[in-house]
Automatic annotation (TrEMBL):
InterPro entries: Aldolase_TIM, G6P_Isomerase, SIS_dom_sf, SIS_PGI_1, TAL/FSA, Transaldolase_2
GO cellular component: cytoplasm
Primary gene name: tal
Cell location: Cytoplasm
Species: Vulcanimicrobium alpinum
Listed name of the protein: Transaldolase
Sequence similarity: Belongs to the transaldolase family. Type 2 subfamily. Belongs to the GPI family.
Record-listed E.C. numbers: 2.2.1.2
């Protein structure tokens, strides 16, 4: 294939693609064409009919729109998503050509072709809905379309005038553009950022005229020489009119103010008569300031054997005029033909449009019959409160505010307003990351050749989504295994290190702020390991960074020559970043289908779009319910999961805890708690079952039914397969934002996570100064544990051993509390099992919710709630003396760091007079946890 697209561009003609299909975004097909020099895209109702009417590309999104009854609105939602995807892919072309090319056209409904005001309104609505500077709204050049073109241009909207067949109608369209600009000038508005094309239809002229010629030839006339000549002739004459109109004085005044010419766009340029050359409507029509939009087969022909000669549109003008005259002499009226073609064109687009709406209708009917709702609420007595919360969110216009980054539903305090205004980038991020999916895929493919392991080095919001994806999707054949390091425990660091082949490992340093201590420590440690293994020169090539623009990490990564630095949208907080580079770079590197995950997220985005009424938006309904339930005291949001998405809870836990646990209130997420008997759950619970429609009977699903029957509120979130995790990420984010508004808190800050980060830094500085932490004396010391009480338990009679101390704290547990086990120990299967057993014992005995967090990981998650939320927590903090230290270049070792984090956490809880104890195991963790389990079982037994 040659360089024809670039040669054409050099000759002043841009080639656009006259086609759109959802699969071309995900497959990378469109990106490849753009890379070859394609510079724009057009769509029309027939193109969409073909794309949407056939195949299953749109079924996913249709499923999320199943409640919507208006098929035209559904079509718009489908089309807008494609147009946005295309606009995002063409955006670099738009940027590089300074707004000359990179446009994607979307046509107003052809049913409005004879309705001026209807067209003006529809154009404005579509422009706002697509919300991209490189979209063009297509308006037919009918009699009624003329004033609509002028008004739409005057409104500052890019216009593609379509269905132009005659030179005179073309001139009307061009004048409408000029008049629209003039109106703007009169109003003192800028005109330099407006683009327009006039779509002049070519091949259809030959089809119509040849038909008449054939009739005459059959009747004995010798007119063969005129066959297949009219279309190109007519088009060349239209180009002459263009030169005149835009070369004249009237336009010169506008040009002086920065106006661009309205470029003629040659449409309908595939050859219809197979006897003719396949590029007969391309090669002779090359000219400056033109576009030719071609369907895929014509594009293939150009790339395969097109020859490019500049300015062919200026050649043979005499012959062109002679052709038109000759036709006139034969009583073939170009005027009649072109008028008929406009009418036929409108009818044919309207027919396509109606056929497409019918196809959408029947698809929906089928989907409605087999798709359950995405969110089902069985709230029992709490339903009226949830309804009232939803009404309030409706009054607040919550979705519109989210989409417009208006902070008013969360706070009016200036400090919070500043935070929220810069925290809502996640609302649109699925679409933006989607536009990068082919880049991510290509990068991943190149890495897969060099690496067997990919390791995310990050904390909380920067690592939980990759961890959940890793545990959900596992290892992809042909791609590296994905690991996540979010612990400073020396045994855990060593276990990971030993499982890697460092020379074949790629490390992703993931930190939004670029200053968090843990990822910094991980980076220093593994950078040294890589340097030792592959040499200092090559080390950077084993690293990738994901961070905000301008961070210290970005600068270091550039300096150390990292293989890639992905700078994320800075308007996204860590816990809302799953669908940005933070989640999707690791996912792509692990070979997961990022496009599929993002497609599902985009479905959720549409279901919760700015224009959706909150009552119909699944995320808002979910959020209103959990917010209202929390206000009624059902604040223990217990996450039950289908086994195939078991890992999801850890991500949702962070989102909910860190977003809502502040100002002395909050929703307490309970994740990973073993299923209990129905009677083990108190009146403070609400259950959310994730994965409701996934196949197979599972215990969690069955238990959800029993809990509902027993009168507990149960929310079910439907998933059809694991890729719906993308949809879940988004749905929970909307729900959390909505719940925050119901609770009246800022769902986007995390003051107490920052407090922990600061505590750690302070303690480390003290350590450096004094050579130790100056830990207090334990209140109880026995052979298996040392006990340090928090202020809220200092008055309790702890006795003299682990058993008595645990019993004393257990005595402090009240209905409505939650018991948190915060373990600064290695996170591994054995310790997880031990803690699971311990929490079940406490839950069953006290009917209270229990949580488990491994330190320091939970500091970036539930840690916010422990300190910022209500005083309902009873804390058991576990620490131990790791058997070895691991040195980190330029800072204290991992063992010291882990201890600093535990002590800092303890201090914060203590300061807030929380109840509980720190239990320090002097020996092995396993033995310590076993001793603790025995003590708690004893305490429970004594109570019973
Ligand atoms: O109008 C534009 C571009 O502005 C095109 O999408 C235009 O609708 C198409 O080129 C034609 O409808 C295709 O016509 P044809 O090749 O089917 O005769
Ligand atoms: O949840 C986020 C963690 O606190 C990590 O923050 P970071 O991405 O700025 O390193």
């Amino acid at each position: 294939m040659g360089n024809q697209l670039r040669e054409l561009a050099a000759a002043g003609q841009s080639i656009w693609l006259d086609n759109i299909r959802r699969s071309m975004f995900a497959s990378g097909e469109l990106q490849t064409l753009i890379d070859q020099g394609l510079r724009g895209m057009t769509s029309n109702p027939t193109i969409f009919e073909k794309a949407i009417g056939a195949g299953t590309d749109y079924d996913e999104q249709l499923r999320t729109l199943a409640a919507e009854r208006d098929t035209a609105a559904i079509f718009e939602a489908l089309a807008i998503r494609d147009i946005r995807s295309a606009c995002d892919l063409f955006r670099p072309v738009w940027d590089q050509t300074h707004g000359l090319d990179g446009y994607v056209s979307l046509e107003v409904s052809p049913t409005l072709a004879n309705d001026t005001q209807g067209t003006i309104d529809a154009a404005a609505r579509l422009w706002r809905a697509v919300d991209r500077p490189n979209v063009m709204i297509k308006i037919p050049g009918t009699v009624e379309g003329g004033p609509a073109i002028k008004a739409t241009i005057a409104a500052g909207i890019n216009v593609n005038v379509t269905l132009l067949f005659s030179v005179d109608r073309y001139e009307t369209a061009a004048n409408a553009y000029i008049e629209g600009l003039e109106e703007r000038v009169k109003r003192g508005e800028p005109i330099d950022a407006i683009a327009s094309v006039a779509s002049f239809f070519v091949s259809r002229i030959d089809t119509a005229i040849d038909k008449q010629l054939h009739a005459k030839i059959e009747a004995g006339a010798h007119l063969e020489h005129l066959l297949g000549k009219a279309a190109v002739a007519n088009t060349k004459l239209a180009y002459q009119r263009f030169l005149k109109l835009f070369g004249g004085e009237r336009f010169a005044a506008l040009r002086a103010k920065g106006a661009r010419v309205q470029r003629p766009l040659w449409a309908s340029t595939s050859t219809k008569n197979p006897a003719y050359a396949d590029l007969m409507y391309v090669e002779p029509l090359v000219g400056r300031d033109t576009v030719n939009t071609v369907p895929p087969n014509t594009l293939d022909a150009i790339l395969d054997h097109g020859t490019v000669r500049p300015e062919t549109v200026l050649e043979d003008l005499g012959r062109a005029r002679a052709t038109i005259e000759a036709l006139g002499k034969e009583q073939i009226s170009l005027y009649d033909v072109t008028e008929q073609l406009v009418a036929d064109g409108v009818t044919s687009f309207a027919d396509s449009f109606n056929a497409m709406l019918a196809a959408i209708g029947s698809k929906l009917e089928k989907l409605r019959s087999d798709a359950p709702p995405k969110v089902s609420l069985a709230l029992g007595a709490a339903q009226p409160a949830a309804d009232a919360a939803l009404d309030r969110l409706g009054t607040l216009d919550i979705l519109k505010k989210l989409w417009l980054a208006d902070p008013s539903p969360w706070s009016s305090d200036p400090a919070h307003v500043a935070i929220v205004t810069h925290a809502l980038g996640w609302v649109e991020i699925p679409q933006q990351t989607h536009a990068q999916s082919s880049d991510l895929r290509e990068f991943a493919q190149s890495c897969a050749k060099r690496f067997d392991h990919v390791v995310v080095l990050g904390m909380g919001g920067s690592s939980l989504a990759p961890d959940v994806l890793r545990r959900t999707f596992g290892k992809t054949p042909g791609y590296p295994a994905l690991h996540v390091l979010d612990s400073t425990d020396p045994q855990q660091v060593r276990a990971l290190d030993e499982s890697l082949d460092i020379a074949r490992s790629l490390f992703i340093v993931a930190s939004k702020s670029g200053t968090t201590t843990e990822p910094d420590a991980f980076y220093r440690y593994f950078f040294q390991r890589v340097q030792q293994t592959v040499g200092a020169q090559n080390a950077g090539d084993h690293f990738v960074a994901v961070t905000d623009p301008g961070t210290k990490l970005e600068a270091e990564a550039k300096q150390a020559k990292f293989a890639r630095v992905f700078t994320n949208d800075p308007n996204i907080g860590g816990r809302y970043s799953a669908l940005s580079y933070f989640g999707m770079v690791p996912a792509a590197l692990a070979g997961y289908d990022v496009t599929a995950i993002l497609d599902r997220a985009i479905n959720a985005m549409h279901a919760n779009a700015r224009t959706v009424v909150p009552h119909d938006a699944p995320g808002v309904r979910f959020g209103a319910a959990i917010g209202a339930l929390a206000k009624q005291g059902r604040d223990k949001l217990t996450i039950l999961t289908h086994p195939s998405v078991r890992a999801f809870g850890a991500w949702a836990e962070q989102l909910i805890a860190e977003s809502t646990g502040k100002s002395g209130i909050g929703i307490v997420p309970v994740e990973g708690e073993p299923l209990g008997e129905v009677g083990a759950y108190g009146e403070d619970r609400v259950f959310v079952y994730v994965g409701a429609t996934l196949p197979g009977d599972d215990d969690a699903g069955a238990r959800a039914c029993e809990l509902e029957a027993a009168g507990h509120p149960v929310i079910r979130l439907a998933m059809s397969d694991a890729y719906d995790i993308g949809e879940q990420f988004y749905l929970w984010e909307i729900a959390t934002a909505a719940a925050g508004a119901v609770l009246g808190i800022d769902a986007f800050d995390q003051p107490n996570v920052q407090e922990s980060k600061d505590n750690t830094k302070r303690l480390l500085a003290e350590y450096a100064q004094k050579g130790g932490f100056g830990e207090p004396e334990p209140r109880v010391t026995s052979s298996d544990a040392q006990i340090f009480p928090l202020a809220g338990s200092r008055a309790a009679a702890l006795g003299s051993d682990l058993q008595s101390a645990v019993a004393a704290i257990a005595d402090q547990i009240r209905a409505g509390d939650y018991v948190a086990f915060n373990a600064y120990v290695p996170m591994n299967g054995v310790n997880e099992d031990a803690l699971r057993r311990i929490r079940a014992v406490v839950r069953d005995a006290h009917k209270v919710a229990t949580t488990v967090g491994f330190g320091p990981r939970f500091l970036h998650s539930t840690g916010q709630l422990h300190k910022g939320g209500s005083n309902e927590g009873v804390f058991f903090q576990f620490t131990y003396d790791a058997p070895f230290e691991i040195a980190i270049p330029g800072m204290v070792g991992f063992r010291t760091l882990e201890r600093a984090q535990a002590l800092g956490d303890f201090e914060s809880l203590d300061k807030r007079e929380r109840r509980g104890i720190r239990v320090h195991f002097p020996g092995e963790v396993q033995a310590g946890l076993a001793a603790f389990a025995a003590a708690i079982e004893h305490a429970v037994g004594a109570r019973a």
